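Example 9 (inverse folding). The structure is encoded as follows.
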């Protein structure tokens, strides 16, 4: 029987935090209790496009209206996934966007044999050749949509690779990112992530 993903809320020393879907639970715990709240083991994420805590390069910035970037999805590599991993998913989420945040990218159906994505995997056809599927992001386009926050304080972008207990989440190309988030949460064995910044 498939486990269900419940919406949870978390108490913190600052009071009760808002409710979060299961796949966002790690972010909520980090916010409430600091960086040592979750033990992530050896599962790790690196990138030739980003460095943790660094700024997003123009190549990864969205290309529309007053954002003039390359809109190329980042190169990513991951190592030491948990035992039992049968597939991977990748997300990119802006936690500083107003309201519930902003989904920039969500990919599922990456086979367990794959441990890296080249830069521009979203637009180049690399992901579709793997049999992976991409969600509709909050720009209302399928695939990767890079950072493009309003002018002001830089936003933080969370890139996460999830190790999953299945490669088949019964998701279709272009379904909403929130649906991907829910299904990823039902099958997550572990995750590796980094946070990068971008402002205008």
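The amino acid assigned to each position is listed next.
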């Amino acid at each position: 029987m498939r486990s269900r993903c419940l919406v949870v809320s978390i108490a913190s020393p600052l009071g009760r935090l808002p409710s979060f879907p299961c796949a966002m639970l790690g972010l909520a715990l980090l916010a409430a209790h600091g960086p040592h709240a979750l033990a992530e083991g050896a599962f790790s994420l690196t990138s030739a496009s980003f460095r943790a805590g660094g700024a997003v390069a123009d190549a990864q910035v969205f290309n529309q209206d007053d954002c003039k970037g390359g809109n190329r999805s980042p190169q990513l590599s991951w190592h030491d996934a948990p035992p039992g991993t049968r597939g991977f998913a990748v997300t990119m989420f802006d936690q500083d966007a107003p309201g519930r945040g902003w989904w920039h990218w969500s990919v599922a159906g990456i086979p367990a044999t794959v441990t890296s994505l080249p830069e521009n995997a979203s637009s180049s056809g690399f992901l579709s050749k793997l049999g992976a599927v991409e969600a509709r992001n909050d720009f209302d386009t399928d695939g990767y949509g890079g950072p493009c926050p309003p002018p002001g304080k830089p936003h933080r972008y969370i890139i996460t690779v999830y190790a999953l207990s299945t490669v088949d989440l019964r998701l279709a190309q272009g379904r909403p990112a929130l649906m991907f988030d829910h299904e990823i949460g039902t099958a997550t064995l572990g995750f590796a992530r980094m946070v990068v910044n971008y402002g205008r």
